[in-house]
From TrEMBL:
Source organism phylogeny: Bacteria, Pseudomonadati, Pseudomonadota, Alphaproteobacteria, Sphingomonadales
Protein name per the record: Zinc protease
Domain of life from the UniProt record: Bacteria
Alphabetical GO biological process terms: proteolysis
Signal peptide as annotated in the record: 1-27
Transmembrane region(s): none
Database matches in Gene3D superfamilies: Metalloenzyme, LuxS/M16 peptidase-like
Domain Peptidase M16 N-terminal: 96-232
Provenance organism: Novosphingobium fluoreni
Length: 990
């Protein structure tokens, strides 16, 4: 039963050495999910209302051998050629149909000489096929309204290849055409020698851009953890040798072997009737008849114990120390067991839930120990079934200081305690409360689930050989299973999670000689005493009812309609303003945003290091009588959040909550402004994290851009510079409090509440919270009128260095534009221009030259500032091709000025933008973002009325005029990130 809840899916690793390093190679970036923990489940009686495995007369193919209640909204079928399909009606967002074609073939299906073929084939399928001429797929789908890289996508993992399309504004005509095109891609790709010649350089560019320290860690981890199994050497990207020696015949042979109807599932979810969707599948896939005999899937092997392993215990196998000076120190070890496909029954899923409880309890204890300070910054356990190759329990640790052995010992001591003594019922109840809300929320919000997610969930369930279930079924199974989750059962599952065939480890260290393979092996094998100190005591109850009030409930001085949709504006006597939009179409979801102060422009340049530390530590430093642990406890079993970020001209607190939790969510935000705490430990932990992370930026060109690009785009304003370890060392807890105490107290407050809530009770809650705040000081005058610096135009690039692979570089060219709400219509037209630019740059740098895998162009327009916007083009390329990028970008810019785009070229950009806006506007969160700051700038409300026309109505002449205004010769500045050895030479050459 595939459950997408973050609570039951094993908790995501926070560290670099998470098994996410095994994520698939994508045609464009996209997420991948893994199967949760497996262990022997507790025995139980069948859940009421379920069907015993195999007892139904007609069981859908997904549910054979399972007693999990079928999700009746899915309609399952199978064609006579063996192709299976699943379709369902879903109206979120309106008009969209999401199509997924899953092929049960990934890199683990390759032979040694075919390494990388599954992913290469994914590219070639898009290149040319029965109904698509060479190189026309992107333009064709754009004309249908689907943008490349978001709506049109594909991904290859070790176990599958998935082709993805989200078709907006689906009509019978466009659906029929889309299924025709996709069927031709999958059943009859051209796969010619010319296609191969074009796609291999693109894949090689992708390989180069994904290289560096992170790739070395990924390769080392696979080699160590899965030694003796194909997964150890089957990265989806392949090898240079296998890709360069690929031929038309060898690629076609791989296609013929695995692209067969029996290996393919077509999944469709969207705003159309199931019978209609089913008819397209039958029309375009029923005639697919592959040649030759079907080939059984290869064996993925099992983890292998050392030859001298003692019986009755989990032996320590291979360990490896990898020196990477620019990466944070990180330790990861895995206890591996053979993966076996099981019948996805309710009893099996009860075992998964027990596994998740066991992991959650350990992770909470590890977090508590880390908060106390000591040997490690973070640590986490995480069970995953990896690529149908191993059932593994991973432990990831970020040590502090040089005593890494203490970090390993302290983490293992917490785990050992969990294995030797059962948890308390109070600990179990706390995690059960978290799981309950995690399962309840999808029930409340099921009408909001987009078809794309439902389709992706089914793809992932197929990959891990599980079923899917409705949110109601999942919640019911969980709640009826609660008596099974006893301390003894959780302890038993803990023991199973840390027992297996072999345990293997990897240590990434910055210093050579800091550790050896043998020392790491010894640290993992050495006996440890159980650590009982961080067991979570029940403690006195923490209740909102006992927290101090913000103040006297505030009076409402003004309440009026904005004239837009049903959005109401309310003003309180203390100056706080609120925008309220109750929307019944979003059941169970309420989004709250509180904006205050002056953001970046309010901060003094000398206080710049505290900006980043505040984004990490301000929330966890506490409020009112609540420390970080108290904040965790008081929100147990509730859906509450506390995201914090710094914008150009405001600070923002954001959360997604539920109607029942809204009033208390408002209290948390208001209390942070009125009664902040300044606990020191979160600040010290944030300092440690910031210092550890800093060196990692230099490991790749993209890392350097993440660190420095905004700084240079803002004219080297020190407030936008990433603080160095030396600068972080100079910060103090007193300085942190001084900077952020002032920020929390200054500037106007705007609250937005959109979603499913009762206006009367919400207004009363606002009166008790934000309305009860003391009157606020206005934002500092200096901040409001601060000059916005922009880079000076120059054809001489700024040279930055990275420490990564010598064949990696990045090039940036940027044209300053403007900012401010008065220019919003023009900023939207600039988005059309940048999409035109992106299409041309992608065609030139990727398709024609094979020089960059994913070059792109984007526009920024700071609404709260009068300047600071830009049009920026970026590509990751080989160092020697940086001049080619600058030359190409200049040529495209000049051509946009000289020659207006054609009507077809413009339509290929406008239609996807139209569909993006249409789909986004089906969510209140879209309007929340567009109306930030509208309580003090009413023009933002008026500008929202024209958003569709601004993005979709233009002319070639207008695009030409915009290009002339901003992209003229001599208007840009440039930056390049090159290998360390080249940086000095380039600087001297300038």
């Amino acid at each position: 039963m595939h459950i997408s809840s973050r609570a039951v899916r094993s908790f995501a690793c926070l560290l670099l050495l998470s098994t996410s390093t095994l994520s698939p190679v994508l045609a464009q970036p996209g997420p991948v999910q893994e199967k949760p923990a497996t262990a022997n489940p507790p025995s139980t009686k069948p859940i009421q209302g379920t069907v015993a495995p195999g007892s139904a007369s007609k069981v859908p193919w997904l549910y054979k051998g399972s007693d999990v209640p079928p999700d009746l909204e899915w309609n399952f079928g199978e064609l006579s050629n063996g192709l299976r399909y699943a379709v369902r009606k879903n109206g979120v967002p309106p008009g969209q149909v999401s199509i997924r074609i899953r092929v049960d073939a990934g890199s683990l299906y390759e032979t040694d000489s075919e390494r990388g073929y599954a992913h290469l084939l994914e590219h070639m399928v898009f290149r040319q096929s029965k109904y698509l001429a060479e190189g026309t797929a992107i333009a064709t789908f754009q004309r249908l309204g689907a943008s490349f890289g978001t709506d049109t996508n594909a991904e290859t993992s070790p176990t599958q290849t998935v082709f993805k399309l989200d078709l907006p504004n689906a009509t019978p005509v466009s659906l029929d055409e889309t299924f025709k095109l996709l069927s031709g891609m999958v059943t009859a790709p051209t796969l010619s020698a010319d296609n191969l010649k074009l796609d291999v350089p693109i894949v090689m560019a992708e390989m180069r851009e994904r290289g560096g320290a992170a790739k070395r860690v990924q390769d080392t981890m696979q080699d160590v953890f899965y030694k003796g199994q194909p997964l150890a050497e089957r990265s989806p990207i392949g090898t240079v040798k296998s890709l360069q020696t690929a031929t038309q015949d060898s690629v076609r042979a791989f296609y013929k072997r695995w692209y067969r109807p029996q290996n393919v599932v077509v999944i469709v979810a969207g705003d159309a009737e199931p019978a209609q969707l089913e008819s397209y599948v039958k029309k375009w896939f029923a005639d697919w008849k592959p040649t030759g005999q079907a080939v059984p899937a290869p064996s993925f092997g099992d983890p292998v114990a050392p030859a001298d392993a003692p019986k009755g215990e989990t032996p320590i196998g291979d360990t490896k120390v990898l020196v990477e000076p620019d990466l944070p120190p990180a330790i990861s070890y895995a206890t591996l067991r053979p993966w076996r496909q099981v019948n996805d029954t309710i009893v099996y899923n009860q075992g998964l839930m027990t596994d998740s409880l066991a992991q959650a309890i350990i992770n909470r204890r590890l977090e508590s120990k880390a908060r106390l300070g000591g040997s490690f910054l973070t640590a986490q356990v995480n069970q995953q079934d990896v690529s149908r190759s191993a059932d593994a329990t991973f432990v990831s640790i970020t040590p502090l200081g040089d005593d890494w052995k203490a970090a390993v010992r302290d983490v293992r001591a917490v785990i050992t305690d969990a294995m030797t003594r059962p948890p308390t019922q109070a600990e179990i109840d706390r995690e059960l409360a978290e799981l309950d809300v995690a399962f309840q929320v999808p029930v409340e919000q099921r009408r909001l689930l987009p078809g794309s997610k439902l389709a992706d969930d089914l793809v992932n369930a197929l990959d891990i050989r599980e079923t899917v279930a409705s949110p109601e079924a999942v919640l019911r199974i969980f709640r009826e299973s609660k008596p099974l989750f006893t301390p003894a059962a959780v302890q038993q599952h803990t023991q199973q999670l840390f027992s297996g065939t072999v345990t293997r480890g990897l240590f990434i260290t910055q210093k050579a000689g800091n550790a050896t393979d043998a020392a790491l092996r010894q640290a993992l094998a050495a006996p440890v005493k159980p650590d009982e100190q961080v067991r979570q005591a029940s403690g006195p109850p923490v209740s909102f009812d006992k927290l101090p009030p913000i103040g006297q409930p505030g009076q409402i001085t003004q309440s009026q309609s904005t004239g837009l949709l049903g959005i109401q504006q309310v003003v309180f006597a203390n100056g706080v303003k609120a925008l309220l939009w109750p929307v019944q179409e979003e059941p169970g979801r309420v989004t709250v945003k509180a904006r205050f102060g002056g953001g970046y422009r309010e901060m003094s340049p000398k206080d710049a290091p505290y900006i980043g530390l505040g984004q990490m530590a301000l929330v966890s430093s506490g409020l009112a009588t609540l420390g970080q642990d108290d904040l965790d406890r008081i929100s147990t079993g509730r859906k509450m959040g506390f995201d914090f970020k710094v914008d150009d001209a405001a600070f923002e607190m954001t959360a997604e909550t539920r109607p029942a939790d809204l009033a208390d969510q408002l209290y948390l935000f208001a209390a942070k402004l009125d009664m902040p705490r300044w606990d020191k430990q979160p600040f010290e932990r944030a300092k440690a994290a910031a210092k550890i992370q800093y060196a990692q930026f230099a490991t790749s060109p993209q890392g350097v851009l993440n660190r420095d690009l905004q700084f240079y785009q803002r004219g080297q304003d020190p407030r936008f510079e990433t603080a160095t370890p030396a600068e972080i060392d100079k910060t103090t807890a007193d300085g942190f409090r001084k900077v952020w105490e002032k920020a929390l107290a200054s500037g106007p407050v705007e609250v937005q509440i959109y979603g499913d809530f009762d206006p009367a009770t919400t207004l009363a809650a606002l009166q008790r919270t934000f309305g009860a705040l003391k009157p606020r000081d206005p934002a500092p005058v200096a901040a409001a009128t601060a000059d916005i610096t922009v880079p000076k135009p120059s054809t001489r690039p700024i040279i930055l260095a990275h420490h990564g692979d010598p064949d990696q570089a990045a090039a940036v060219i940027s044209w300053p534009t403007s900012g401010g709400s008065i220019g919003l219509p023009e900023s939207r037209q600039l988005e059309i221009l940048t999409q035109l630019f992106t299409n041309r740059l992608l065609d030139a740098m990727r398709e024609k030259l094979g020089a960059s895998y994913a070059p792109y162009v984007y526009s920024t327009w700071p609404v709260d500032l009068k300047a600071g916007g830009s049009i920026t083009a970026i590509a990751q390329i080989e160092p020697g091709k940086v001049p080619v990028f600058f030359q190409t970008a200049d040529q495209i810019a000049q051509d946009l000025i000289t020659n207006p785009p054609s009507a077809d070229e413009l339509a290929r950009v406008i239609e996807p933008l139209r569909q993006q806006i249409t789909r986004a506007a089906s969510s209140t969160q879209f309007f929340m973002q567009q109306l930030e700051g509208a309580t003090t700038d009413a023009s933002r409300i008026n500008s929202l009325r024209t958003i569709m026309t601004d993005y979709t109505e233009t002319t070639p002449a207008k695009m030409q005029a915009l290009a002339a205004k901003y992209l003229g010769k001599g208007a840009s500045w440039r930056l390049e990130v090159v290998p360390q050895k080249d940086a000095g030479k380039l600087a001297k050459a300038q």
